[in-house]
Amino acid sequence: MQERNRKAFISNIKRVIVKIGSSILTNEFGELQGSVFDEIAKAISNLKTRKIEAVLVSSGAIASGMKKLNLKEKPKDISMKQAIAACGQSALMWNYEQAFSSFDEKVAQILITHDGLSERKRFLNARKTLLALLRMGIVPIINENDTVAVEEIMLGDNDNLAALVTSLVEADLLILLTNIDGLYTKDPRNHKDAEFISLIDEIDAGIQNMAGETMGKTTTGGMRTKIEAAKSAAAFGVPTIIANGRKLSTLSDIFAGEEIGTLFLPAKDRLKGRKHWIAFTLKPSGQLIIDSGAKRAISSMGKSLLPSGVRDVIGEFDIGDQVTCIDEEGIEVARGLTSYSSNEISKLIGAKSTNIENILGYKYSDEIIHRDDLVVMLKEKAT
């Protein structure tokens, strides 16, 4: 992408999500750096003068708590992480309050868990709250609710959370600030021949494999989760920029249209709100292995998944749960909301839809997953 095109693209942004990692907010001793908070507040305040709304997704509660409690290593135990986050969250928000108040800006703290977004009504209520804050000119600062989250409902990383928030408030751009300039062909810290990639048209298996070689040692997700977040945003029709947040001018430079970071372009076929919610907000409860005929019907013909195309069931799940459909080679084809439980589907494997009632004694639907509740993750060309 030429510089003039990047400038034209940036000029159309009206709402942006900015994710800030712990490595950006802390120094080598794990201490929160006031100068970084000041620079973030300055950049966001400048965006608001240009009529650009901003939502921050910020890590740092656990890092802040560790410093307060004089801990050298992050514990693995969930309850300890919760306790540390509780100690650190107030210090984190105090720094944001102080920094933004210097620019006469108000902030609001929003703590979210996966459980709070996986139910559609709660998802929509969270959206209403965030949009109300933006209308009031208040900057929302979002973090995963580490204090109450338990392992099965944790989002797992704030990159993933930022992508979900992008969909939640229908933002125009997602910016992931990290401690590296963007995506490289290899980890530049370990490979001198690593090449920087400034533009990604489509996130394919090759791009995801590159991310696997650039994992950070001190962060929760590393580059892999950032690629996953970019893929989620792209599916919603939103571009992502991964850039180095340790350079204090990065946000300002991005909105000046400079070639900063790696830009991931949005997908050509955008998922609508509900289907994006199904694919990227819900957590899979199980897997269905499907045959080649079902794979073709789903991926290239826009069909539903019928029991005749199911070859095996993995995991235990109930009606309405999200499951992934994988082919017989283990490649993910689709995700969707199932019309039957895992126990019921096990009895229907390979059966025709006309025989469902004979097998079960009742029938909810002809489809295991109706196409309205199915999101294709791997598209094939029709033959």
What proportion of the residues is helical, as a percent range?
25-40%
Strand ordering within the main sheet: 3-4-2-1-5-9-10-8
Characterize the main sheet: 8 strands, mixed
Approximate shape: globular
Number of strands: 15
Q: Helix and strand string, N-terminal first? A: HEHHEHHEHHEHEEEEHHEHEHEHEEEHHE
Give a short synopsis of this structure:
The protein has 383 residues and is of the alpha/beta class. It has helices at 3-11, 22-25, 34-49, 61-68, 78-101, 114-118, 120-135, 158-168, 205-212, 222-235, 250-255, 273-281, 292-301, 342-348, 356-360, and strands at residues 15-20, 53-58, 107-112, 139-144, 173-178, 183-184, 196-197, 199-200, 240-244, 262-264, 286-290, 310-314, 322-326, 332-337, 374-376. The chain has an 8-stranded mixed sheet with strand order 3-4-2-1-5-9-10-8, with helices on both faces.
Describe the structure.
The protein has 383 residues and is of the alpha/beta class. It has two domains: 3-275, Acetylglutamate kinase-like (Carbamate kinase), CATH 3.40.1160; 284-376, PUA domain (Archaeosine Trna-guanine Transglycosylase, Chain: A, domain 4, Roll). 40% of the residues lie in helices and 18% in strands. It contains 15 helices and 15 strands. The protein has helices spanning 3-11, 22-25, 34-49, 61-68, 78-101, 114-118, 120-135, 158-168, 205-212, 222-235, 250-255, 273-281, 292-301, 342-348, 356-360; strands spanning 15-20, 53-58, 107-112, 139-144, 173-178, 183-184, 196-197, 199-200, 240-244, 262-264, 286-290, 310-314, 322-326, 332-337, 374-376. An eight-stranded mixed beta sheet has the order 3-4-2-1-5-9-10-8, with helices on both faces. Strand 13 (322-326) and strand 14 (332-337) form a beta hairpin. Helix 3 packs across helix 5 (78-101), helix 8 (158-168) runs parallel beside helix 10 and helix 9 (205-212) packs antiparallel against helix 10 (222-235). The longest helix is centred in the N-terminal third of the chain and has 24 residues, at 78-101. The relative contact order is 0.11.
